[in-house]
Amino acid sequence: MTWRSWKTARRRFGRSTIDLRELYNLIVDLSAPAASAQAPAGVRIDGPAVADDATLAWMDVTFGGWWSSEAAAGDNFVARRNGDVVGFATVDPRGLQFSWLQGVAREPGVGIFGPFGVAREQRGTGLGKALLDAALR
Q: What is the pLDDT of residues 63-73, one digit of tens each?
């Protein structure tokens, strides 16, 4: 983002605790699945769908913060192993009141990704890549 576009964004989207120079347009070719984006054996990824109360509670316990309220505002891809939630990815949460989203979210062709999380014991297994791949398609 150039200095001029940053200044324009600042005028359009207002003051925020988020540094608008850190917003990026991530354009990628999604015509073929990434070879490494397969869910680990024994893990099933479902979605997109509204997260159920048990999944939202898991997010609160596992990650704390505001993630469950953000996830409740969007569609979710949820990864489960033996029926237990082990990861999630939220796409297009709407109605959030973060000032930096007010202008950006209204732009044509703009999608919102996140929050996104994988249980600590599942990290490094490729589950995060599989969730990201599912969410971006």
A: 988 899 999 99
